[in-house]
Amino acid sequence: MIQIDRLTKRFDAIHGIFDVTLRVEPGSVFGFIGPNGAGKSTTIRHLMGLLHADSGKASVMGHDCWRESEQVKASVGYLPGEINYPQDMTGEEIIRLTSRLHRTSREREDRLRTIFPFDTSLKVRKMSKGMKQKLGIVTCFMKDVPVYVLDEPTSGLDPLMQERLIEWVLAEKAAGKAILMSSHHFPEMEKTCDRAALIRDGRIIIEADIDELKRRSVKAYQIGLKSEVEAQALADKVGIRDGRTVTVTVSTSDELNALIATLTSFEVESLTSGADELEHMFMEYYGEVTS
Where is the ABC transporter domain (predicted)? Predict the structure, then answer.
């Protein structure tokens, strides 16, 4: 559904994207992960026919994203990273314009309005970031199309709306849609994505199934003990002590089960986990490349 082959766009000697290749299949969500300026939005702009590549190719449903951008835009629901609607239009006016342009279903529109409610009578310039994001989500998904491209889709949303968007994306995936999602919100990536790529300095440095990425990740746990003596005794076995807290890292379920068995001999007062697995993986690879 989405196919990018060795896409390259040089802005100068070090900025741009270089030999980016990825595929997004029907009924799947592909996560696009990377720090700011890594090349995520530049890649997405090529998909939407907004930039012309120096070399390589981007296509959606077999249509070249630059030469056949009209057909591509008709097949794609796009949520940009920056919501930039005309400031003096109301939310209702933008929704009605979207409906006329794309001949959307009123039933689908009403469902989206219910799930992502906001005051549509307000002008865009008076909307909060969260309201603008919900307007972008509604107008993006009003188009019942086979492909969606979402650039930081949960930006500005409260936790309830984030969960609702995750549920909506999962339902669209189950309906056979192909979804490319750029995000820094790692829990949503873990919950929705089948596969992901990490991009840095315009180059993809790793791509794999989400489960495989999580298996490669090391998970950190902070264990609070009753005394520093107990903490030192545990640290001598499995971790690093800081006062009464011991940090332990595990990379497999066997290691986690062994840790749990070890803790039965100690007076544990607290147990907390560190970063989400996908976030920890991201930091591992980001640090690995920059070191």
Answer: 2-226
